Amino acid sequence: MGDPGGVKKVLVVGGIGITACLGFVALLFVGTLAAAGSLAGGVAGGAVGLAKGAVPAQYQGLVQKWGNLCPAINPALLAAQLYQESGFNPKAQSQAAAQGIAQFIPGTWATHGIDGNKDGVRDVWDPRDAIPSAASYDCELAKYVKDAPGDPTHNMLAAYNAGPYAVIKYGGVPPYSETQNYVKTITDLSESFARPVTRVEPSKQAAQAIHYAQQKLGTPYLWGGTGTAAQGGRFDCSGLTQAAYRTVGIELPRVANDQYNAGPHPSRDELLPGDLVFFSDDLTNPRAIRHVGIYVGGGQMIDAPRTGAVIRFSPIDSADYFGATRVTAAGAEALPTAPAGEPEQDAGEEAEDPGEEPGEAPEQDAGEEGRREESGGRSDEAAGPVVSRAPTS
After folding, report:
1. Which pTM value belongs to this model?
2. Which one of 85, 191, 373, 381 is the catalytic residue?
3. Is 85 among the residues known to form the active site?
């Protein structure tokens, strides 16, 4: 995407323009705090529809349908489980032999797998079977623990992790730290997949994140950059957003398509300064997101656009605009991480940027999870979350 006439050139190159715009951002810094105070309490609860773009289009109908199978689940909760388990990857396989988009282990699948698409075959690798089976399994567990005290959904999730007998024995979510964490993780993560029904609650951390990004204006872009001293304090797009939110105690994932799930999704007309804004060549698939910036208001964001450019102000309204996320601490904390003993890949340690011109992408195998130079002149790494756990029988 080319530079818009006037605005961006003045902001990045002209000293007077930069000064004026920094004043604009300073006002936003104050305005964001004011918005957070005046709009607090406007967030809705109990939304069970799917947020636009939260689930890849090929699975959205399945998740919406089967997510309403019983009262203990909803489409957003089912989506959160699938994302936590496999990142919507139907070919995922864990070291514990968990298989498919819902990560069933063979023993659990043999007992609880169903023929969701009615083709006469129960195929763990087919999302048309695996997604219905995940919902069916959730509802089965909910029936087992329906008489246990406490929230039925929390008890169902606890049974999914620790087994129904543990929930019955302890009269609710058992006192296992892993199980309690799993219940909280899926519950928090589901908010990123739920369609808001009223205004999304503002972020009180946004102003400081903007302030950090503002200080990096003019810094040269580095593919895989996370701002380390060895990298000369340079960033790529998701490295910048990660560093900005780290200053307020929120740890975002390393890549843009995972950062998209770090909170609820305000609509375009509800954007506030500090929201993360995302871009993709496939507007039906959140896993295809390949660029992110920090919204500052007035239709502008601060972003690290591509090799050869600098961190700057850019317009957000373009054909590749995917959507936005209002980052929350709980949402970021709930995102999948690598299992113990399996460190997450550090993009800064990967191969050097091959130096494509804007609009060209490096060669990449279809199943490769590495960074890529984006088309349209903006770039990011693309990687899905590592499979974290499998359903227990």
Report:
1. 0.71
2. 85
3. yes
